[in-house]
TrEMBL record:
Name of protein: Beta-glucosidase-related glycosidase
UniProt GO BP: carbohydrate metabolic process
InterPro entries listed in its UniProt record: Cellulose_deg_GH3, Fn3-like, GH, Glyco_hydro_3_C, Glyco_hydro_3_C_sf, Glyco_hydro_3_N, Glyco_hydro_3_N_sf, Ig-like_fold
Native organism: Ignavibacterium album (strain DSM 19864 / JCM 16511 / NBRC 101810 / Mat9-16)
Gene behind the chain: bglX
SUPFAM superfamilies: (Trans)glycosidases, Beta-D-glucan exohydrolase, C-terminal domain
Length: 807
């Protein structure tokens, strides 16, 4: 066995490596679902992993706010606390590795996983990622930064060839990954599904060998995304260490003979094994690994989730200071909209958390106001995804109506082939098997189910049948195929609307298969109510204030697919317009993971809040801000466009099958809008407060910067309003004359400060030559003038100063 009396990890790794057989080394390269293979002979334990970046996806846990909201806090210190809380819950679940953070740049406003990442800017993303990772790893849990690299769309994500130039990679898509290595000592990387410039990321020599392990000197392990490996030899040779969820390609059959013959290098194999062992030793897995099983959704973790949610909510509009509301001046409030009475904690896919607790805005407002203000609720519109399982009394196994439920036939393959392994009556179809088997002695992956029986409702009306699934489903009603989505995907909802007659038996058949990962299938029914909108209008008309909650949910924004457009689904724009027509005191609260269009109503409503997917505390955070118990301080980490056509990816997205050409280069997000002089709906870095701030007295310690030097820029911020509040001061740099085209400005520093009314604080930023560089085959700076700009957003520059750089 290895030595226990030394703290030198490298020595301990070598001792253990020398005792492993060639076969055992190979075994360590392939997972077993969400673990690595243990080598019991030598006491090597499994490395236990779990999703996800927004909360532990292993049973119930705290649902922390979405990544886009974390970015909107512009508060890395706070996100470090979130990382530590998350890590405590990872350990409490008996896991060792969290599969996060996700740092892919929001290039495409409809990107299905924008909500998981930190926004469009590489510097902001880097700062949030570094502190997230430090918070996680401080608790002896390994963080996994993902998805490396250029995984900026879900459309065709499993095979799309992302074609992007080296400058854009290094200036836009790599910085957060590089900072994670060099500043946070991140222990694990996850390679992306897509190809990058012709080669799958899991076997991409440029990505994994040249950049990550070569130039950046990464010492940890590189794992694949689940099912992202496509070869044995190229994958082995080009930098991947661990194939997940299993060693389909990296195994004894494919590697052993070639290693024994010398065709493959045992030195390369040893390096992979060392990296896996290094993660185990780094988190203390071979020593006394301490965890507390009670550290799940503790009061402290709930408070952190609440604080992050409040700091990331962005006030986009506040005409005539209608917000915050004063409860003493109100008699009635209309609470309207499809996201008002449901806690939209996050988007869909592997980041979705099963919560112990989640509070909707309606519940939080009722709790806060009690009987002081009358709250009148009207949903107005229904969104997909709010599955209400079909009642058992509406389902029958036969037309005699003497047994409720549907007959479930469970197959141990994905194709409903052969005889079912199990047959039983399921009273309702509302299954979420997560990563565990549906029942004992049944596979957790690669299975299918067919449910058959009859549906009978008690009232004649128009109904919508909803099927939510991860992965494929087919629904037949009276032998007619009405839903056909026989494809792999994260959880999403398909719907079919029809008229059903009371008392009639409708033959129903639901088929479902699960490929890998989560296994979810829900069958719901909702009665269409033509009075929903009319009721909402009536309620708004007769209330002092109308709070309209609109947005999306996990069925619209999810891993596995991109949104089709930027429009609020289910005609929510019409709902807003109708409400503000009858009540000019209408406040819109958006619950989304990425931008939406607001052109139809933004000029008509006096106030707009962007709450994002704010985790389990979403309702409490919104209620605190609406009534002024918290002052909004979030700033947009992503540009909100006036229209999709204004965005940098518009000309190339979905234009060529299997290929995504990043012709926008480095001009992503605000860089694109400013280069082309396009006015956005709301700019990057924008966010209002209930107070106001003044900027003054910019000073630079020296006007000339040289290659081995630094300088400091300082300025003052004063709270010139009447409320305590927080402001995010942003420093941008411009290089007006350069041999290559550069952005109008680039974010290089920021600071979030809290000030009482009348309070002044001086802020200082240190600038180094590397902050002025651009990439042209290598990082470089050209002599000349640079402009330092201080602002409250990318488009609201308050102060400027110029400096000169000389080699």
């Amino acid at each position: 066995m290895f030595s226990q009396n030394t703290n030198n990890i490298d020595i301990r790794i070598e001792e253990l490596l020398n005792q492993l057989t060639l076969e055992e080394k190979i075994d360590l390269l392939g997972g077993t679902g969400f673990e690595t293979k243990p080598i019991e002979r030598l006491g090597i334990p499994p490395l236990n992993m779990c999703d996800g970046p927004l909360g532990v996806r292993w049973g119930q846990a705290t649902a922390f706010p979405s990544g886009i909201l974390m970015g909107a806090t512009w508060n890395p210190d706070l996100i470090s606390k979130l990382g530590s809380a998350l890590a405590e819950e990872v350990k409490a679940k008996g896991r060792h590795v969290i599969l996060g953070p996700c740092v892919n740049i929001a290039r495409l406003p409809m990107g299905g996983r924008n909500f998981e990442s930190f926004g469009e800017d590489p510097y902001l993303t880097s700062r949030i990622a570094v502190d997230y990772i430090k918070g996680v790893q401080k608790e002896n849990v390994a963080a996994t930064i993902k998805h490396f690299a250029a995984n900026n769309q879900e459309h065709e994500r499993m095979f799309v060839d992302v074609q992007v130039d080296e400058r854009a990679l290094n200036e836009i898509y790599f910085p957060a990954f590089k900072a994670a290595v060099e500043e946070a000592n991140v222990l694990a990387f996850m390679s992306a599904y897509n190809k990058l410039n012709g080669h799958y990321c899991s076997e991409n020599e440029y990505l994994l060998k040249e950049k990550l392990k070569g130039e950046w000197k990464f010492k940890g392990l590189v794992m694949s995304d689940w099912g992202a490996v496509h070869s044995s030899i190229p994958t082995f040779n080009n930098g991947l260490d661990l194939e997940m969820p299993e060693g389909k390609y990296l195994n004894r059959n494919s590697l052993l003979t070639k290693l024994k013959s010398g065709e493959l290098s045992e030195e390369v194999l040893n390096d992979k094994v060392k990296r896996i062992l290094r993660v185990m030793f780094s988190i203390g897995l071979f020593d006394e690994y301490k965890s507390d099983s009670a550290k799940i959704n503790t009061d402290e973790h709930k408070q952190i989730a609440l604080e992050v949610a409040k700091e990331g909510i962005v006030l986009l509009k506040n005409q005539n200071n209608i917000l915050p509301l004063n409860k003493d001046e109100l008699k009635s409030i209309a609470v309207i909209g499809p996201t008002s009475n449901i806690a939209i904690t996050g988007g869909g896919g592997s980041s979705m958390v099963s919560t112990f607790y989640a509070i909707s805005p309606l519940e939080a407002l009722e709790k806060k106001l009690g009987d002081k203000v009358k709250i009148i609720f009207a949903q107005g519109i229904s969104l997909n995804g709010t599955i209400r399982p079909i009642k058992t009394e509406f389902l029958f196994t036969n037309v005699n109506g003497n047994e409720n439920g549907l007959i479930g036939e469970y197959f141990t393959n994905k194709d409903l082939n052969g005889e079912p392994a199990r047959v039983k009556v399921d009273k309702i179809i509302n299954f979420d098997w997560e990563w565990d088997s549906s029942f004992e002695d049944f596979p957790s992956d690669n299975f299918s189910v067919r449910w058959t029986g009859y549906l009978k409702v008690d009232k004649t009306n128009t109904y919508t049948i909803d099927v939510s699934s991860d992965d494929g489903v087919r629904l037949f009603l009276d032998e007619k195929l009405v839903i056909d989505d026989w494809n792999d995907h994260a959880e999403m909802t398909n719907s079919y609307t029809t008229r059903l007659e009371a008392g009639r038996f409708y033959k129903i058949k639901l088929e479902f298969y699960e490929n890998g990962g989560a296994a979810i299938c829900r069958l719901g029914l909702r009665e269409e109510n033509s009075n929903l909108l009319a009721n909402a209008i009536s309620v708004a008309k007769n209330s002092d204030v109308a709070l309209v909650f609109v947005g999306t949910n996990y069925t619209y924004e999810s891993e596995g697919f991109d949104r089709q457009d930027l429009i609020l689904p289910q005609n929510q724009d019409e709902l807003i317009k109708k409400i503000v027509e009858v009540n000019p005191r209408t406040i819109v609260v958006l619950t989304t993971g990425s931008p939406v269009l607001m052109n139809e109503w933004i000029d008509k409503v006096p106030a707009v809040l962007e709450s994002w997917f704010a985790g389990e505390q979403i309702g409490n955070a919104i209620a605190d801000i609406i009534f002024g118990e918290a002052n909004p301080s979030g700033k947009l980490p992503i540009t909100f466009p006036l229209q999709w056509e204004d965005c940098s990816a518009f000309e190339t997205y979905k234009k060529e099958e299997g290929v995504s050409k990043y012709d926008d280069g480095i001009f992503v997000g605000y860089r694109h809008f400013e280069k082309n002089n396009i006015k956005p709906l709301f700019p990057f870095g924008f966010g209002l407060s209930y107070t106001q701030f003044g900027y003054s007295d910019i000073k630079v310690t020296k006007n000339i910067l040289t290659s081995d030097d630094s300088l400091t820029v300082s300025f003052k911020i004063k709270n010139i309003g009447t409320r305590k509040g927080k402001e995010v001061a942003q420093l941008y740099v411009s290089d007006p004359v350069c041999s290559v085209e550069r952005p109008v400005k680039e974010l290089k520093r920021f600071a979030k400060v809290e000030l009482n009314p009348g309070e002044v604080e001086e802020i200082s930023f240190t600038i180094f030559p590397k902050d002025l560089m651009f990439y042209d085959n290598h990082w470089k700076i050209e002599n000349g003038e640079f402009i330092l700009m201080i602002g409250s957003s990318s488009s609201d520059i308050k102060l400027k100063s110029s400096i000169k750089y000389y080699e």
